[in-house]
Amino acid sequence: MKPIPLIALLVVCLGCAVAAQGIYPIYYDCTATGSMENATRLYVSNGNQTGVRYTIRLYTSQGGELAMGEYFLNAHASHQIWLPDLLLGSRASAWGLCLLQTGFGYPTALDVVAARYMNGSLLTYERIPDGVVTGWHAFFYDASHSPGGPETDTHVTVMNPTDTANHYRIELYDIYGNGLGTVPGVVNPKCTAVHRLSEWGGDRNVAFGLCVVRSEQYSYETFAVNVFRLRAGRILTTETVP
Question: How far is Cα 56 from Cα 52, in angstroms, rounded to an integer?
Fold first, then answer.
C-alpha cells in the first residue's frame, strides 16, 4: 500500500474539522440610541446525549468583532443569553452577524431560537435552522404598495460567516415568474449587507413573489440570509432562510 501523502492527510483532517463545526449565523440587533433600544435574546437547547461547548461572537455590520462568550451546555439542558450583557461601551453599532459555533470534537446539532425586542416589547421568535450557509436561498417577498393601501416591505440581510469575500446576486420575480430585476453585491468576511426591496423602484403593484439570493461567481461563495417582513412599518415576521 502506498503511503498517504502528508498534504492529502492534512486536507482530509481539515475537511473533518469543517464538517464537525456547527455554524449558526444569526442576525442580531442590540443597538441603543436615544429613546430607541433594541435587544436580542438567544435560547440554546442541547438535545444530544453529551454536553456541547460553543462560542458566541458579535460583529458590527462592517465585520468588526464586538464581543465573544464561551459556554458549555449539558445534555438536555438549555441556555438563555441576553446579548446586551456581552457588550461593553456604546451599542450604537451593535447589529449585524451573531455567530454561534460549536467546538471541534463536540456534537454540532443544537436548537437555537432568537427572540427580538424593541423598547422592552417582544417582537418575534425565530428558530435558526441548521445548514443555512449556502450559495442559494429562495423565499417569498412582498414589497408591494397600492394607492390607499398599507405599505409593505421586505428587508433582506446577507451575512457572511466565512473568512473570504463572497459575491452574490439578488433576483426578484413577480407571481407569474417574470423577472423584475437583479442586483449584484459583495459581502466581506463577518459583514452584513442590508437590502430594502421597496427601494428598487418599478411598479410596486406587482412587487411580490419569489426572491432568490445566489452566489454570483463561484459555487464555493456561501452566505446566510435573514428576512424581515414589514407592514405599515411594523415587523411581522423574521426568518433565517435555509
Answer: 13
* 55-100 pLDDT per residue, tens: 999 999 999 999 999 999 999 999 999 999 999 989 999 999 999 9
- Rounded distance, CA 7 to CA 198, Å? 50
pTM: 0.88
Q: What is the mean pLDDT of residues 172-201?
A: 93
Last-in-domain residue among 78, 100, 128: 128
Distance, in Å, from the CA atom of 54 to the CA atom of 110, rounded to the nearest integer, reads: 10
DSSP state of 103: P
According to DSSP, the β-strands at 179-187 and 136-142 are unpaired
Buried b (16+ CB within 10 A) or exposed e, 54-82: bebbbbbbeeeebbeeeeebeeeeebebe
**Residue pair 38/32 in contact by the 8 Å Cβ criterion:** yes
Domain-ending residue, one of 106, 128, 150: 128
